[in-house]
Design a protein that fits this description.
By secondary structure, the protein is mainly alpha-helical. 79% of the residues lie in helices and 0% in strands. Helix 2 runs antiparallel to helix 3, helix 5 packs antiparallel against helix 6 and helix 6 runs parallel beside helix 8. The chain is rod-shaped.
Length: 317
């Protein structure tokens, strides 16, 4: 910052000397003009320098612009002072427009690098971080020996920092702090490095907490899934057992029914055989139809017994 002030002071002295020379050559008494709206362009220019020296940045910018409306005051030094006043007044949009005009119309001016530097700062303050990086990088590439070199590196780092590109900002801050320890921006660069380190530690802790939380949720989810699967399998197992028991009971009932039918057929056949062995007068009424012979009845009984036996055998398979 001290170096920047020295540069501004030297430029201000040069500009004042040029203005005084101009006053003397034209033999005008600007001291008698006590209003900003005076028609004497040189008087307005003198008032602009006085306002600048008094740190009255808003009035200085207004007066420099008014002075430049007079063609005889249009010069690279006056325009440079206007841009400087606008930067100090934080009128960044106006400063950006005037710096672009300067760079286009005064490419050979000794103030060209400084205006380029100021343009980069304007872009930064206006949130145009990518453009600020490009402009300030061009300044550093073209002016490696400039006293503003360290400051340009710092503002490039600031542009990356503002865009949360900490990994790109860190080496630039380190270079300013290590290679230019006496520069006014070195202390600010160290503060930024501490802030970046602290932020990276916090992000690492947050990631760790997030991973721990995700692991817990995953374990909880897996546990709940396993529990639901166990409950489902248990329910299905009970149902299967109940179904098996019911099927076994049904099969037992079928076997019992088939056995009963066989026994009944066997009992009927035996009774008929005993009745057939009796004399005709003792046989009594046949349980069969009148037209059915004993042989037919016996064959029918045997057939029924065979069918019952087949049903019994199939039930056991």
């Amino acid at each position: 910052m001290i170096k920047v002030k020295k540069i501004y002071a030297s430029l201000l002295a040069l500009a004042l000397a040029a203005s005084l020379s101009l006053y003397a050559s034209e033999k005008r008494d600007a001291a008698r003009v006590n209003t900003y709206g005076g028609g004497d362009g040189n008087a307005v220019l003198g008032q602009a320098y006085n306002a600048y020296a008094a740190s009255d940045w808003q009035n200085a910018a207004m007066l420099f612009r008014k002075a430049l409306s007079d063609p005889q005051n249009e010069s690279d030094s006056t325009l440079y002072m206007l841009i400087s006043a606008e930067m100090k007044a934080k009128s960044y949009k106006a400063a950006l427009a005037d710096s672009s005009y300067f760079l286009q119309n005064y490419p050979d001016s000794r103030y060209f690098p400084l205006i380029q530097y100021q343009q980069g700062r304007c872009l930064f303050y206006l949130g145009e971080f990518d453009k600020a990086v490009l402009t300030l990088s061009d300044f550093c590439h073209q002016n490696p020996d400039s006293e503003m070199y360290a400051s340009s590196l710092f503002w490039i780092a600031e542009a990356f920092y503002a865009g949360y590109n900490f990994e790109q900002a860190r080496p630039l801050y380190e270079r300013v702090a290590d290679d230019f320890p006496k520069d006014s921006k070195a202390l600010e660069a160290r503060y930024r490095l501490d802030a970046i380190n602290q932020r990276l530690r916090e992000e690492k802790l947050l990631r760790l907490l997030q991973q721990t939380g995700e692991s817990y949720l995953s374990s909880k989810e897996n546990y709940e899934k396993a529990l639901r699967r166990y409950e489902l399998e248990s329910a299905m197992g009970i149902t299967a057992q109940e179904s098996a028991a019911e099927q076994e009971a049904e099969e037992s009932e079928e076997v019992a029914a088939e056995s009963s039918a066989v026994k009944e057929a066997e009992k009927t056949a035996a009774a008929e055989q005993r009745r057939a062995a009796l004399p005709m007068d003792e046989r009594g009424t046949s349980p069969y139809n009148k037209d059915e012979t004993f042989i037919d009845a016996l064959q029918r009984l045997k057939k029924s017994a065979a069918e019952a036996q087949g049903l019994l055998e199939r039930g056991g398979e």
